[in-house]
Amino acid sequence: MSFQSMALPNTASAQPLAQILKLHPGRTHELCGPARQLLAVWIMAQQPPSAPVIWIRPDWKADRVNPQALCDWASPEGLIVVESPREADSLACAEEALRSGAVALVVMELASPLALTPLRRLHLAAEAGLDRRRIQARDSTVLGLVLTPENGGTAGVESRWHLASHPSAASAPPAWTLQRLRARMKPPAAWRISRLYDEITIHSTAPEA
């Protein structure tokens, strides 16, 4: 089973998680919050079959991307992890990967929000890559994701999302609070998400102030 062809578990909700996380292609989006890596995995699981995903991260970070830990949500086959010594190198790698049109998704971990000029370059690269994929009749998906700490704050992103674990009893299934903090065409929104075995339950909640 390829990494991208593995669908998210069944969703017990009128609005499936894949529909909530349907991001505008050819643009760069920001994921923040303590569970931002998991949110990136949810988005990765939606990508077209056999499409590779590049995950760029600083080589000085103590934690590592563990492919086996992704198996509850998606198969790690097709995941390419790039470790970079400098943010400038990470940005250059992300820009080239997006522009190439060879990948459907580029994830980049950052220590702080991205400045406006490099973000614009990522937007342009994603647009160019999307055009290439359409010409080659691959699919209509090219996304850039920047992962930033706390509440993010990268100016000019197409959308900003926050994911954090939701406190629950020890006997309760794991749960998270997903927030859409900003989007160009949609209002702020929030959802309570829980998972029991292979079923995801989603409830809309009021966005946090």
- Radius of gyration in whole Å, from Cα? 16 Å
Task: Work out the number of β strands.
Answer: 10
Strand order of the largest sheet: 1-10-9-8-7-2-6-5-3-4
The helix-and-strand class reads: alpha/beta
Query: What percentage of residues falls in helices of 4 or more residues?
Result: 10-25%
Overall average pLDDT: 85
Largest sheet: 10 strands, mixed
Please tell me what the overall shape is.
globular
Q: What count of helical segments does DSSP give?
A: 4
Strand residue content: 25-35%
Instruction: Measure the end-to-end span.
Output: 41 Å
Return residue spans where pLDDT drops below 50 for at least 5 consecutive residues: 1-7
Give me the oligomer status.
single chain
Please write the string of helix (H) and strand (E) elements. Answer: EHEHEEHEHEEEEE
Highlighted features:
10-stranded mixed sheet; 4 helices; 209 residues; alpha/beta
In short:
By secondary structure, the chain is of the alpha/beta class. It contains four helices and ten strands. The chain has a ten-stranded mixed beta sheet with strand order 1-10-9-8-7-2-6-5-3-4, with helices on both faces.
Task: Describe the model.
This protein is of the alpha/beta class and 209 residues long. Helix content is 22%, strand content 30%. It has helices spanning 17-20, 36-44, 87-100, 116-135; strands at 10-12, 27-32, 53-58, 79-84, 105-109, 143-148, 159-165, 175-183, 189-196, 199-205. A ten-stranded mixed beta sheet has the order 1-10-9-8-7-2-6-5-3-4, with helices on both faces. A hairpin with a 2-residue loop joins strand 9 and strand 10. Helix 3 runs parallel beside helix 4 (116-135). It is globular and about 45 Å long. Mean pLDDT is 85; it is low at 1-7.
